[in-house]
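Proteins fold reproducibly. Next comes a concrete instance:

***
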Amino acid sequence: MPLYAYITQSAKGAPFSKATADAPSLSDLNARLFHLNKPVVKILERRRSDDKKRKGIPLRFRLTFLEQLEASCHLGMDLRTALGICLENTSRRTSAGRQLAGVIRELRNKVMRGVSFARAICNFPYVFDEVSVGLIAAGEEGGTFNESLTNVCKIWARNEDLHHRLLMMLIYPAIVLAAAIGVVWLLMTRVVPQFVAVLSQMNVDLPVPTRILIAISGFWTGYPWIILLCGIAVILLILKFPALIRRTPVLHAMALRVPLFGQLTLLLVRANFTRTFAQLKNARAKTTQCLVLCRDLSWNYEYRSAVARTLLKVQRGEPLSRALEEDVDIFGDMVVHGLAFMEVSGSGSEGLIRLTDLLERQLDAYINAIRQVLDPLLVLFLGGVIGGIVFATFLPAIEILRRI
């Protein structure tokens, strides 16, 4: 019997604890822990060695494949033929394309042997996440397979669009920062040393800002490799910082309180939760199954534990909106009150989709607001740094002119 490691939290705000248990499958382990009234934050699966060696296929490749499959099935083709068409139209010019072609070939072979599509894609977690597998499985069971493919395409397309927008938002600050670093480097290694040589011949008392600038310039000129290595280390730290936060559960609550980006994470989580929940309900999935899949939408343990606590309450018979009230700081008033209204009015998944559209408009507006705030702040910061260098450089000249 396989042994699993899992993360739980005894109560809201309590530390996360890790334990192990043996179970025939993940679903059996989930059911057992829920019966013991333990909110399951995450189950740590042991990946096979061949899965660890595989690199994730970029989202745009996976999205293209799924859109082709969805279009083929929408035209009435059987799944085996649709997979064959997708295989023929998959580019093999890149390693990711060749890897995706191999996945499609294996999927077609499994489907030809009578394996369901949802069960077949479970063997490729680096292509299909648990939410996608759950949506497709619910669609196959409920007779809405084509609609499930469409819903997964919408989720992946939304994620791809969001990644693209965030990347575009960071390009301008990166270009400005790179240009400013080049200007500061030239000032510190070319302009300031020449100015120091002139001042040394005049035998004047230098003010404190100028002396600090000369010391920094001397260090830059004398140890350029140290400055270069420190700069590379800072860049790598910035790039690896999100992964470090994800691997450190203690920082997850703090990540939601970071100015600007904490609110962005919450808005993204709420929009993904409502859209995925609505699409799962539209595929006739049970509320408990929807919550289990929605739990895996985010890496943040605070969100995952909130969904796990909600799941336990729903299993005890509480309405979903009331179960979410304890974690209104995670889900937001709009989601909790919207679900309460839909439970009373019986509007169902259509109301959830409208609520999702509203949340996504808020998310888009917030991203635009962050860009409008970050760009001026960056310009002001860089202007202050370069202006400070120029001020410290010409301050002695001002003192000399006053004495003349």
